[in-house]
Amino acid sequence: MEKLFAGARLRQLREDRSMSQSALARLLGISPSYVNQLEHNARPLTLPVLLRLTEHFGVDAEFFAPQDIARLVADVREVFADDTVTGAVSALQVDELTTKLPEVARTLVTLHQRYREAVENITALVAEQGLDRTSVRQPHEEVRDWFYRRHNHVAELDEPAERLAAELRLRPGQVRAGLIAGLLERHRVRVVEEPLGSDQHRFDRRTRTLRLSPTLRPGQSAFRLASELALLEAGEVIEGLVRGGGFSEETAHRLARIGLANYFAGALVLPYRVFLGAAERHRYDITRLSEEFGVGFETICHRLSTLQRKGTRGVPFSFVRVDRAGNISKRQSATGFHFSRVGGSCPLWIVYEAFSAPGRILTQIAELPDGKQYFWLARTVTRAAGGHGDPGKSFAIGLGCELRHAKRLVYSDGLALGAGAAITGIGMGCKVCERPACPQRAFPAIGKPLRVQEHVSSLLPYPPEA
């Protein structure tokens, strides 16, 4: 068992129950000074103490796990890497802040996000863009961050969707027919196919008619049916989650409803236990899962990133979708992997290389500057154009997990994962990356002095000061 320092969590547990350190010590059968040392991370939690804590307080052992700290450290480091924030804070000070005062660190990150939004607002106004809302990106970012904080798992929707799938007797390969029957029997909704221009589906509440575009593949059609069924079946739950989500405006509310309806749809088409069982059986072979459940590569990857139900967790994945220009249009994470908001993502990341080998699954062992290692796989997906001359859509889908989980994936077969592994050092974006000798750097690191000499040249685009 690795040393587990969980002082902040232990203090939170004690204070939530209005207990003194002496009272907690008596309950655990240890000395008050030992409790004090545990809460100040002077000593690690031992297995016997951890077991007594879970027994007496009824919490899962994962309550004390440091899985959130890696992401929080990355978020806080990005705050102080912002070139508009003055003051030098060392990596050691950031680690101490996030470990000892995680709630203060989270508040700092939230304040910085709002500060960045305010800067964007001012920039937009100065540029006379005629914006009549708070920020161009804010609603989408709010919704993404909400899912990110939940590790991309919404139990309030996942479990009802699984029960509904059982009630409708949905079977892989026959989901579309089952959903059509369920809409008609439970909600008197009739499904028809007809051309809808650029729309994929439309639901008319007045006539109780759901129109589907005939251009949709069976898996896409099933997903659209399921998303409307989500709003009919779980509308109150979705509305409650939206109201409690702290979203700032109506646009964000609507996007959150759509995102939650789509989450329910994914959980309905790919029920948790059935899908997790198949994923483990096939060792997370995405192609085989796609064939078995009749949905696309992207849908399978996105669902894999949500399998974090307590007691029956799958591999904790990060999921990302990017375009050729490097824009990240989807990003969710159940791991400590951090997606940068400053200066773009790392060009050495395998997700971008996928565009050079369309349709092939590429793999990479990537290491972040903090030493954490991840196993990534990536593949392109293409969506056909409407007709000749119409532009299609092409994305790269990335799915990653911590390297320690890689053996559970079929894609790691034949690869060296230990001492002989081929590891690629990547960063969270050039402006915040701590790798001074990277030849692919697009921007100098914020706050780091450069070596600029008139009579000396370097292979490095932004050589650091010695």
Automatic annotation (TrEMBL):
Q: Which Pfam families match?
A: HTH_3 (PF01381), Peptidase_M78 (PF06114), ScfRs (PF09856)
Has the keyword Transcription been applied to this entry?
yes
InterPro entries per UniProt: Cro/C1-type_HTH, HTH_RamB, IrrE_HExxH, Lambda_DNA-bd_dom_sf, ScfR_C, TransReg_Diox_bact_type
Protein family according to the UniProt entry = Belongs to the short-chain fatty acyl-CoA assimilation regulator (ScfR) family.
Query: According to the lineage, what is the superkingdom?
Result: Bacteria
The UniProt GO MF terms for this protein read: DNA binding; DNA-binding transcription factor activity
Protein name as it appears in the record: Putative transcriptional regulator/DNA-binding XRE family transcriptional regulator
